[in-house]
């Protein structure tokens, strides 16, 4: 982030608009007409806040596409026009598009409602970060892995009384922490319009703190943070090892909690695991409710995909494709959305039907990165189950054909689907020699060519393991 930004009042609207039009000219000169018309023309500048140029796109799809394909270019175009702009963000205004008759007419590109966006961002921020209109409770799909965090978030959003303070949300990347925090802000503000709800990242907190020191204005920094009813700080891990920011955060935190104001923190790990954060702070972070979001389960992933696909009715994606994605993209929701967006982009731009084959082709890299790690134990269990024999028989030294063949299949799959060496596999199969495993692999390889029943069995098993 840039350390010196012009004070807000210096940025006059007209200046901002003029800059924006020069940024657009730059983009226009760099891209050919159709790219410019498709992606940049419908964009509108909403505001410049804390060195971040916020632009609005009329649809979710466009926003995602811009973000993943053009963000760097747009950012540097802004920087060249106005060095105090250090970052950009794209938001969607589909939340308002509902009331916008233009969108009903599918031929026209809907123009975002800038006035409304401005009001919302102004109300939202004061000194917090803008909220993404897509991140609401309604759009959050609940499953086993996130139900605790969701319930806690709702409770906080719907009540003025403080039940647990702080609420500490943690999870790996892309599992919905930021989404939940924005949802809390939207819901809380709707219910209690007079409350001061502030959301910002730990990085922005630090930035504001440093700026206040630079301008010898720490008093007003302290005052404004202490006047908040609900403070949310996202990605707290960012201030690890940043001594003075931590110190200031801790003062703010204590002051708010002592006055029964709600504090919500998110981080990529639990309070006890936060390295580079002072012990006394860590322990206080765990005083309220600590809720973690677990990695997603299949049903949740499918639910999320269905919800997101439903929002793009013009593109038809079959259930089997969605199921395939839910089975194969297991890393996190952000990647899952990325995969779906890419499918939608291809479908719209190339005008092809979305089939399983196309999905596999278009998502090759993502699918490879998401290859499920299968263990030898799991292979043994599944193979025994599939051939309807006991696991103990599979691992025994019995040579009867009805257990020997499945055993070979399991060895073969262990070799194909795990990175384990032949000796390791041998040991896992009741301490057999690596030559036995080698023989099994060779044998099954041969049989796959000639024995169509066995070939089918193996294909079925491979599908079970998601390959
Ligand atoms: P985090 O802050 O934990 O890294 P985000 O909140 O940014 O994750 O989520 C990443 C993306 O996944 C966002 O677009 C968000 O809307 C989406 N997402 C995450 N969890 C869910 C969910 N349960 N239902 C719907 N969308 C989700
Ligand atoms: Mg986040």
Biggest sheet: strand arrangement: 5-6-7-4-8
Tally of discrete structural domains:
4
Which architecture of the largest domain per CATH? Answer: 3-Layer(aba) Sandwich
Q: Would you identify the regions where 5 or more consecutive residues have pLDDT less than 50?
A: 1-12, 94-110, 120-125
The top-level CATH class of the largest domain is: Alpha Beta
The geometry reads as globular
Averaging pLDDT over every residue, what do you get? 86
Assembly annotation: single chain
Q: Give the name of the CATH superfamily of the largest domain.
A: P-loop containing nucleotide triphosphate hydrolases
Q: In terms of structural class, how would the helical and strand content be classed?
A: alpha/beta
Q: Evaluate the radius of gyration.
A: 27 Å
CATH topology of the largest domain: the name is Rossmann fold
Strand segment tally: 8
Largest sheet: 5 strands, parallel
Relative strand content: 5-15%
Task: Please tally the helical runs, counting DSSP H or I stretches of 4 or more residues.
Answer: 24
Q: Write out the distinct hetero groups bound to the structure.
A: adenosine-5'-diphosphate, magnesium ion
Layout of strands and helices, then pairs:
Blueprint (H helix, E strand, L loop, with lengths): L12 H18 L2 H8 L3 E6 L2 E6 L2 H10 L1 H11 L5 E6 L1 H4 L3 H4 L9 H12 L21 H12 L8 E4 L6 H15 L5 E5 H13 L3 H9 L3 E5 L8 H16 L3 E6 L11 H7 L3 E4 L5 H13 L8 H10 L4 H18 L5 H7 L1 H6 L6 H11 L4 H5 L5 H17 L4 H7 L5 H17 L1 H13 L3
Parallel strand pairs: 2-3, 4-7, 4-8, 5-6, 6-7
Antiparallel strand pairs: 1-2
């Amino acid at each position: 982030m840039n350390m010196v930004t012009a004070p807000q009042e210096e940025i006059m609207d007209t200046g901002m608009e003029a800059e924006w039009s020069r940024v657009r000219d730059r983009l226009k000169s760099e891209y050919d007409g159709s790219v410019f018309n498709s992606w940049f023309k419908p964009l509108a500048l909403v505001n410049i806040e804390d060195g971040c140029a916020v632009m609005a796109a009329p649809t979710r799809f466009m926003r995602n596409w811009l973000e993943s394909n053009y963000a760097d270019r747009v950012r540097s175009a802004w920087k060249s026009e106005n060095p105090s702009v250090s970052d950009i963000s794209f938001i969607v205004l589909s939340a308002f598009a509902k009331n916008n008759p233009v969108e009903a007419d599918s031929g026209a590109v809907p123009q975002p409602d800038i006035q409304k966006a401005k009001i919302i961002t102004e109300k939202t921020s004061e000194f917090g970060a803008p909220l993404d209109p897509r991140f609401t409770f309604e759009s959050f799909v609940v499953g086993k892995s996130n139900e605790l965090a969701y319930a806690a978030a709702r409770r906080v959003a719907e009540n003025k009384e403080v039940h647990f303070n702080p609420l500490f949300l943690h999870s790996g990347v892309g599992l919905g922490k930021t989404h939940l925090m924005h949802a809390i802000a939207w819901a809380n503000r709707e219910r209690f319009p007079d409350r001061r709800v502030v959301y910002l990242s730990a990085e922005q907190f630090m930035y504001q703190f440093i700026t206040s020191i630079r301008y010898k204005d720490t008093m007003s920094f302290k005052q404004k943070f202490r006047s908040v009813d609900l403070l949310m700080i996202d990605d707290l891990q960012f201030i690890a090892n940043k001594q003075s920011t931590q110190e200031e955060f801790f003062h703010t935190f204590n002051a708010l909690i002592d006055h029964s104001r709600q504090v919500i923190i998110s981080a990529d790990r639990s309070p006890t695991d936060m390295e580079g954060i002072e012990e006394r702070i860590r322990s206080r972070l765990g005083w309220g409710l600590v809720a973690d979001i677990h990695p997603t389960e299949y049903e949740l992933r499918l639910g999320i995909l269905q919800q997101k696909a439903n929002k793009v009715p013009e593109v038809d994606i079959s259930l089997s494709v969605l199921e395939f994605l839910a089975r194969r993209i297991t890393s996190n929701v952000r990647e899952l959305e990325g995969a779906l967006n890419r499918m939608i982009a291809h479908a719209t731009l190339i005008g092809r039907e979305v089939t399983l084959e196309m999905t596999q082709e278009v998502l090759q890299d993502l699918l490879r990165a998401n290859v499920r790690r299968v263990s030898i134990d799991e292979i043994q269990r599944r193979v025994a189950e599939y051939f309807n024999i006991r696991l103990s028989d599979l691992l025994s030294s019995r040579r009867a054909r009805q257990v020997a063949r499945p055993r070979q299949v399991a060895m073969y799959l262990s070799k194909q689907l795990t990175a384990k060496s032949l000796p390791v596999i041998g040991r896992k199969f009741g301490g057999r020699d690596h030559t036995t495993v080698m023989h099994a692999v060779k044998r099954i390889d041969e049989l796959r060519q000639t024995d169509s029943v066995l070939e089918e069995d193996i294909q079925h098993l491979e599908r079970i393991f998601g390959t």
